[in-house]
Design brief:
Elements: H1 17-32, H2 39-46, H3 60-85, H4 89-106, H5 108-116, H6 134-144, H7 152-172, H8 179-185, H9 188-197, H10 200-204
């Protein structure tokens, strides 16, 4: 891992250090894996004193949770961007699915950490504004594509189904056995879009039709 110098070489304004340490943790995570993450390692990567991280994180567990929370925030933002840029509501659903899969594949270690730190929680990490969450964006995209907003239980089930479908595709998309199909379709992204077109909610675009 690249050394970044001592604390004097990389001064931070008050309030910036926590973010700098989380960013350093993410770099270490993607380069070397979760096992390499420690408070001392992120201090070294961020160019601050070994004691500095303890002002923000009690231990490695808190550091990992902060790095994972940053990952969820990045995914939320990517999903919101996909929904906003789509031409139609149905396109929005497919673009959200594609964005999710690409995020997972572009940030494999971070993606694993996000779910590893969330499994034992009673709820997924939430942003300060609930409307900015990826889950809420999927829910809204479903309504815009024709789902009945008054059928709350069905809407929740459709949202979960869409999330699980994208999660499953992210887990399987790199299987080598799909290489010939990807080549025949013109590449990786065409393959992903094609799969999404054949997955329940993404194909039909509404909770009322997802059953």
């Amino acid at each position: 891992m690249r050394e970044t110098g001592d604390a004097q070489a990389r001064p931070y304004h008050h309030g910036d250090l926590s973010r700098a340490l989380v960013d350093a943790g993410r770099r270490i995570l993607e380069a070397e894996g979760a096992a390499a993450l420690s408070l001392r390692a992120v201090a070294r990567e961020a160019g601050v004193s070994p004691a500095a991280p303890y002002h923000h994180f009690k231990d490695k567990t808190e550091l990992l949770e902060a790095v994972a929370h940053g990952g969820w925030a990045a995914l939320d933002g990517a999903i919101a961007g996909a929904r906003k840029s789509a031409d139609t509501p149905r396109d929005a659903l497919r673009e959200i699915g594609l964005t999710y899969v690409n995020f997972a594949r572009d940030n494999p270690a971070l993606y694993r950490l996000m779910y590893d730190t969330s499994r034992d929680r009673t709820a997924m990490p939430k942003p300060a504004n609930e409307e900015e969450s990826g889950y809420h964006q999927v829910r809204c995209a479903l309504i815009e594509a024709g789902a009945d907003a008054s059928e709350e239980q069905e809407l929740q089930l459709a949202t979960i189904a869409a999330w699980c479908a994208a999660h499953g595709l992210a887990e399987m998309a790199n299987f080598k056995e799909f290489a010939p199909l990807k080549a025949a379709m013109g590449g990786d992204q065409a393959f992903l879009r094609g799969v999404l077109r054949h997955i329940g909610t993404f194909a039909r675009g509404g909770a009322k039709e997802a059953g």
